[in-house]
Amino acid sequence: MKLECITVNYRTEDLTLRVVRALVEALEGHDARITIVENGSGNSAAERLREGLQAISGSTPTTLIVSEVNGGFGAGNNLALRAALGRPDPPDVFYLINPDALPDPGSVAALLGFLERHPRAGVVGTGVRDLTGPHSSAFRFPTAPGEFEGRLRLGAVSRLLARWRIPLEPGGAARRVDWVSGSSCALRRAMLEEVGLFDESFFLYFEETDLCRRAAPFGWEVWTVPESEVLHEGAVATGLEDRTKRRPAFWFESRSRYLLKHDGWRGLVLANLAWVVGSLFFELRRRLTARPRIDPPRLLWDFVTKSWWSRAAR
Fold it and tell me: pLDDT tens digits, the chain, 314 residues: what are they?
């Protein structure tokens, strides 16, 4: 299978060059190429990447695409996807990997082998681990019961609502899921040609959820393959995992946009109410038991003020 690996850089040049080095080694002997999208970082990022790429030895061709603006994750990947799809010999598979993810040896080969054995697999995600161990990289689509369970974080209720829980347990055998993390995933070209590319109205987050949901009506399957795994440092460019800082506005806007697009106003309102009620009960329990805060500062306030009438809703 002809493969194209894509990584989007936004002020993570050292990490981007690290993942390119790992890919060059992993792709030895494969019919593959690598495309790096410099997504409007500024500050001579493109020059640093060009110099770094020249110093990387290997037989895998590499291409640098420079965007003057940061259009977000979907827009950045679409630049590389469109360029590859426009060539006379487009790849059969695209492998998207974030700069803060590092593929294990053999992980790319495992993905390609799985795709060859499963011709209706349109999106295939990998296992993901950080320094503390494996964590979720495959999910159910958001629903009101799932949002309530995720915010309440109470064992008895979580067991009762287990079939709606959004994050799936990591590990295990390959299985079909609703959607997978875009930090490390493979996209089949035939699926993209039928379904379309990423919706660029999502700046960051939920664009892969949207793509997987759009693929389902066409009969394309979404799988997670834990035997293929990456080490992920977690939201280095976005800072979403930093719980000392407020959650960025684009997360709330992307979530609202996704729910409105696929579930309408009723779905958005129900999911938001479930999120707020679950959060209030959790916060009450946390204060009564004097537990430390684990959410970002002012998360509930930001959610209430940014998830009902955002740019997505307008």
Answer: 999 999 999 999 999 999 999 999 999 999 999 999 999 999 899 999 999 999 998 889 999 999 999 999 999 999 999 999 999 999 999 999 999 999 999 999 999 999 999 999 999 999 999 988 999 999 999 999 999 999 999 999 999 999 999 999 999 999 999 999 999 999 999 999 999 999 999 999 999 999 999 999 999 999 999 999 999 876 565 667 778 899 999 999 999 999 999 999 999 999 999 999 999 999 999 999 999 999 999 999 999 999 986 554 44
Judge if 39 and 85 occupy the same domain.
yes
Instruction: List the Cα angle 281/282/283 in 5-degree steps.
Output: 90
Q: Are residues 278 and 196 in the same domain?
A: no
- DSSP letter assigned to residue 191: H
Domain enclosing residue 280, as ranges: 249-306
| Pair 217, 263 in one domain | no
Spatial separation of the C-alpha atoms in residues 89 and 87, rounded to whole Å: 5
pTM score of the predicted model: 0.95
Q: Domain total for the chain?
A: 2
Buried-state track 105-127, b at ≥16 Cβ within 10 A, e below 16: eebbbbbbebbeebeebbbbbbb
Q: 187: domain CATH number? A: 3.90.550.10
Residue by residue, DSSP assigns 21-81 as: HHHHHHTTTSSEEEEEEEES--TTHHHHHHHHHHT--SSS-EEEEEESS---HHHHHHHHH
